[in-house]
Amino acid sequence: MTPTQTQIEQLITHLNATTQREVIRISLSLANHLALTDSKVGGLPYIPQGGSLPTSAQGKPLFMLAQINCEQLPENNLYPQKGLLQFWIADTEDFMYGLDLDHPCSNNTKRVLYYPNIGNALPVDKFIDHYTFESGYLPFDVGLEFAMDFSKDTETISLSEGDAYRFFVRKWNETFSDTIRNLSYLPNDTCEEIYNLVDDETGHKIGGYPYFTQADPRKEKDPHTFLLLQIHSNLIDNAEIMWGDYGVANFFISPKDLASCKFDDVLYNWDCS
């Protein structure tokens, strides 16, 4: 027998109390001439004095998708307390935005760079002539930049993440005699009710539960469990961020690497409907 609505609500209320995750929500606004060291999506990157633009395996400059100045974040237990974290992707001609489906942790067409100390910046005129992108296959126009505004929050269980989905099914089977292998075994109206009761994973954010328009690319026991950054398709002041057909991009890291500020093994994924 399918559980009643009250029984389902009681289960999810119980799960919500035990599955909270810290999250930093990110609100974006169109901006101009942000400081080189500001948190931003797009815009001009901070390059340390004496440094150079990161490049793909083909020697072409990567595009700075986002950078986060850790000192501009609210107090949190997620990111380093200082320094600057940058996310770079390749301008590839196949509309893949630097995604390598076979090797999602590869640094050939994406990089995540961390500068623990923010020193003098390389002057823009030293790199701007090389910061060009021939094909223009990027999630937004090169000339756009968006300021980041942060707010601290918590999220409870959602069902887009593979591990959370499997956990929910396991708890369902421990609670109800009508056991299932996945939610498709339940009536459609029951599934809809469950999804309406759990948290919405969409939006720009750090931490919390990730969102996928298709499926979580990570296998069970994949160590890349922490959501380092999520950027969603969004229309902001008539400026568009678009991952394919209204998709979303995610960067994941293992908690061990994050604690060690080691960012050379980050899993990058984006998908769309």
Rg (CA only)? 20 Å
Classify the secondary structure makeup into a structural class.
alpha+beta
* Individual helix count: 4
The CATH top-level class label: Mainly Beta
User: What's the order of the H and E elements?
Assistant: HEEEEEEHHEEEEEHE
| Biggest sheet layout | 7 strands, antiparallel
- In round numbers, the mean pLDDT is 96
Keywords:
273 residues, elongated, Hypothetical protein YwqG fold, three-stranded antiparallel beta sheet, 4 helices, alpha+beta, seven-stranded antiparallel beta sheet
Describe this structure in words.
The chain is of the alpha+beta class. It has a single domain, classed as Roll (Hypothetical protein YwqG fold), CATH 2.30.320. Helix content is 16%, strand content 26%. The protein is built from 4 helices and 12 strands. It has helices at 5-18, 162-175, 188-197, 255-259, and strands spanning 21-30, 40-42, 63-69, 84-89, 110-115, 145-155, 205-207, 226-232, 234-236, 239-241, 248-253, 267-271. The strands form 3 sheets. It has a 7-stranded antiparallel sheet with strand order 5-4-3-2-6-1-7, with no helix packed on it. Strands 8-11-12 form a 3-stranded antiparallel sheet. A hairpin with a 2-residue loop joins β9 (234-236) and β10. The radius of gyration is 20 Å and the shape is elongated.
